[in-house]
Amino acid sequence: MAEGGLRERQKEKRKQAIMVAAAHLFQAQGFNAASMEDIAAAAELSVGTVYNYFKSKAEIGLAIYQADRDLVHEATSRVIANPPADPVDAICRMMETDFETEIGYLDRAVWSSLFGASFTDQSSLSNAFVSDELMRVDQFRKLLHVLAQKGTVDAQADIDAAAEMLGALNLWYFMRWLAGLRAGEGSASSGILDTEAKATLRRHVTQLMRGLRV
């Protein structure tokens, strides 16, 4: 049993090493320029070993998307379980939690590279991006239902539509963040929400929530 557990830990360690190496190369070279051979060298593994874990760069990208999605889902689920009483506070807390929850080896440049690949020839990455956004809409839907049960959101409101709008707003902040990197605004490590952006987010959410309050 102990030997099997050690093997699993070693396998997970190698998998993580590959994902970290790939992320760094996607940041430095871009998704298309980075090769599986480059990734293997950066991870200090043989090319054959890398292919044992991932059949392509797209699979590595999918693993990165999944790791981020799982982390964000877990963090935002904690907000849903115990949200602030005020709906605006709850929605802002949800988005801030999403944007501030990140895997250590991911930054704006890595996401920009993966996002660009998602809308070129990597349909699997595009599907992963859509799946990520649908997960966020579903989390907003769950939060709004909790708030409706608590009596701070109108139970007769169109919660599905509201969740979709909040998902679109969430995506807008993410896209603005990526566009800012290409425009030379901030560094690759800059976060999505600075103090000014948080104030703007609260204004946006306040406006959207006016139609949902009791």
Could you walk me through the main structural features you see in this protein, from its secondary elements to its overall organization?
The protein has helices at 2-29, 36-43, 47-53, 57-81, 87-100, 108-118, 123-150, 159-182, 195-209. Helix 2 (36-43) packs across helix 3 and helix 6 (108-118) crosses helix 8. The mean pLDDT is 90. It contains 9 helices and no strands. By secondary structure, the protein is mostly helical.
Provide the fold topology.
Layout: H1 2-29, H2 36-43, H3 47-53, H4 57-81, H5 87-100, H6 108-118, H7 123-150, H8 159-182, H9 195-209
Helix pairs in contact: 1-2, 1-4, 1-6, 2-3, 4-5, 4-7, 5-7, 5-9, 6-7, 6-8, 7-8, 8-9
Short structural description:
75% of the residues lie in helices and 0% in strands. The protein is mainly alpha-helical and 214 residues long.
Keywords:
214 residues, mainly alpha, 9 helices
What is the tally of helical segments? Answer: 9
Low-confidence stretches: none
Shape: globular
State the order of secondary-structure elements, H for helix, E for strand.
HHHHHHHHH
Distance between the termini: 56 Å
Number of strands: 0
> What is the overall pLDDT average?
90
Strand content: under 5%
Major pleated sheet? none
Which bin fits the share of residues in helices? over 70%
Give the structural class: mainly alpha
Radius of gyration over C-alpha positions, nearest whole angstrom: 19 Å
